[in-house]
Each structure stands twice: as C-alpha cells, then as structure tokens.
Specification:
Blueprint (H helix, E strand, L loop, with lengths): L1 H85 L5 H69 L2 H24 L1
Helix pairs in contact: 1-2, 1-3, 2-3
Length: about 190
C-alpha cells in the first residue's frame, strides 16, 4: 500500500512539475516575443525620429538660405533707394531705372522673407515632432528592457525551481506590456 501511495505522490509531483515547467516555458516565450516586438517598434521609432530630425535640419538650412537671399535683396534695395533719394542721379531716366530696381528688389525680398519664416516654422514643427517620437522610442526601449529582464528572471526560476522569480518575471512582463502600449501610442 505504501508503495502505491509513494508512486501516486511521485506521479503527482511529476505532473505538477510538468505544469510548472510548461507555465515557465510559456512565460519565457511570451516575454521573448514581446521583447522582439518592443525592439521592432523601438527601431521604427528611432528611424522616424532621425528622419524627422533630418527634415527639421534641412528646413532650417533652407530657411537660412532664404534669409540670406532676403538680406542681400534688402541691401540692394537700400543702396538703390539711397541713390534715388540722394539726388546723385542727374537724369529722370536714370532715377526711374534705379527706382524700378529698388522696387523690384524690395518686392522680391518680401516674398523671400515670407518663405524663410515659413521654412523656419516648418523646421520648428519637425523638431518638436522629432522630440515626441524620440520620447516614444525611449519608452519602447524601457519596455523592451523589462521584457529582457523578465526572460532572465523566469529562466533562473526554471533552473532554481523557485516560484518567486517566476512571479517577479511575470509581473515585469505585465509592467512591460503597459509600458510598451504607452510608448507605442505616445507618438
């Protein structure tokens, strides 16, 4: 009789151990998949942040060029206007030609100024957007780290046959899922 009881207890322990190992395996697999997804999302956000930052830099460079052209046209306008106002030009034809040049330079400079301001605003918007995407990337990286730590803790729990590390690892995975969702929807 005691032999049957020992065999039954042994079989029950094997079944329990098998269930625990399956749970451990499932938790490890789920955490590993979530870590891979977190890495994928983080890489996409990293690329998006770099692309947006590059757009901001390009728009700022174009704005700087437009401001430079605006200033050059303003200098030409001011020189031509000074010539007209000074009375140095003796003929009406010469004054009209220089006044026409001054008016043309002033008109062209105003459209350049508007373009430069528009490009600068575009650059600022892209820069803000890049910062937002970068914050999302950082949160996704943190979530991925939580999943990686979870995999390690659950693996150690399987080797040491402790439930505490399994519970901590599973808990970290839950926190990682929440963090992953926050990071994903942040941008």
């Amino acid at each position: 009789m005691s032999e049957n009881v020992l065999k039954t207890l042994s079989d029950a322990n094997e079944i329990r151990r098998g269930r625990r190992e399956r749970v451990t395996s499932v938790v490890i697999a789920v955490a590993a998949v979530l870590a891979a997804l977190g890495t994928l999302f983080a890489h996409h956000r990293s690329i998006a942040a770099l692309t947006t930052k590059n757009q901001a830099i390009l728009a700022q460079a174009k704005a700087t060029d437009a401001y430079g052209k605006y200033e050059a046209k303003q200098v030409r306008y001011q020189i031509a206007q000074t010539l007209v106002d000074s009375g140095i030009l003796n003929t009406d034809r010469g004054r009209r030609a220089v006044q026409k040049l001054a008016d043309r330079e002033n008109g062209a400079s105003q459209s350049l100024l508007a373009r430069a301001q528009s490009l600068e605003a575009e650059s600022e918007r892209a820069d803000v957007s890049s910062e937002k995407v970068l914050k999302s990337y950082e949160v996704l990286q943190f979530a991925t780290t939580l999943f990686d730590i979870s995999v390690v803790l659950v693996s150690i729990s399987a080797l040491m046959r402790t439930r505490a590390l399994l519970a901590i690892g599973a808990g970290l995975s839950v926190v990682g899922v929440v963090t992953l969702l926050v990071g994903y929807f942040r941008a």
